[in-house]
Request: fold
Amino acid sequence: MEISVSSHAENSASGVRWAVDGTDADRQKVDGTDADLLTPKETAPIVKLSVSTLKDKRWKGTGPSFIKLTPGRGGRIRYRRRDVEQWLTERQVAA
Reply:
């Protein structure tokens, strides 16, 4: 049984409204400016790393900035595409 719930939530601290899709619980800004949130599985091929290496880099603090949507050790992780692209650009070495 699949339940699809679409609602809006507001972060009182920042005043940002989020669209929450109950099928995946991904958060996307309602205005669409940060709608491109990537899962670790989607991010890994972009940075040419395995999902486990990306996880290791998160733990060490050496990977791209990420968002933790749910608390705890098994929390849902998302990456903003622009943060991933910035992380790659910062690692570019001039020849």
The radius of gyration is 15 Å. The mean pLDDT is 75. The chain has two domains: 1-33, 36-95.
